Amino acid sequence: MTSIELLLQRQSTPLLTKPAPNPHDLDKILAAGMRVPDHACLQPWHFTVITGDGLQRFSDLLVHSSDSASANLTRIAKKPFRAPMIIVVSTEFVQHEKVPTQEQLISVGCCAHAMQMASVALGYGAMWRTGGLAYNTKIKQGLAIKEHDEIVGFLYIGTPCKEQELKTTKSFEKKVSYWE
Question: Percent of the chain beyond pLDDT 90?
């Protein structure tokens, strides 16, 4: 697959299983996150890699941090086990007179995207998820994310359970204007 094919065929892989990326591939995935556009080279991000027993610890954190009714707790407890690896991508905002937090947030979003694309390029599947749990203060505290920082997403990575049909490409015509 060429680089342009990788980008033009990007889609999430929701059904993931073992194996997770090996340490060598994980290093490449994390290195891809480090190559994103980053005004003033602030590196306003942090990656928390969750695997093995950490998935159960993360499940416990989600359950104990949830305000959901007990019927939803079983569903919430299962979320970390949708893949053998989760990378929590979060901000580490840096005070800078020329680089506002909004611009730093965009860079961190680029990290998540680059790591998802690197995962696919290495033969894994990946899915970037957020939802209400990404905005939960107790979960941020449990992951040692400072109050003023944000969880940009949970990047689930593993081996695809089955071949996915390529989704239809969305048209860009109504989303573009030209100044000539």
Answer: 93
Q: Shortest CA distance to 160 belongs to which of 55, 9, 14?
A: 14
Question: What size, in residues, is the chain?
Answer: 180
What does the alpha-carbon distance between residue 117 and residue 145 come to, in Å, rounded to a whole number?
25
CA distance 64 to 77: 10
* pLDDT digits 0-9 by tens, 31-55: 999 999 999 999 999 999 999 999 9
pLDDT at 67: 78
CA dist 171 and 87 (Å) reads 31
Look up residue 108 and give its two tokens: 């961190």
Q: For 82-120, give the secondary structure using H, E and C.
A: HCCEEEEEEECCCCCCCCCHHHHHHHHHHHHHHHHHHHH
Residue 88: CA atoms inside 13 Å, Cβ hemisphere, count? Answer: 23
**DSSP one-letter code for 157:** E
Dump pLDDT digits (tens) for 69-88: 665 898 999 999 999 999 99
Question: What domains, with CATH codes, occur in the chain?
Answer: 16-175 (3.40.109.10)
pTM for this entry: 0.96
Cis bond before residue 19 (omega within 30° of 0): yes
- As a whole number of angstroms, the distance between CA 132 and CA 63 comes to 13
Q: What is the Cα–Cα distance from 13 to 159, expressed in whole angstroms?
A: 9
Tokens of 67: 């305000």
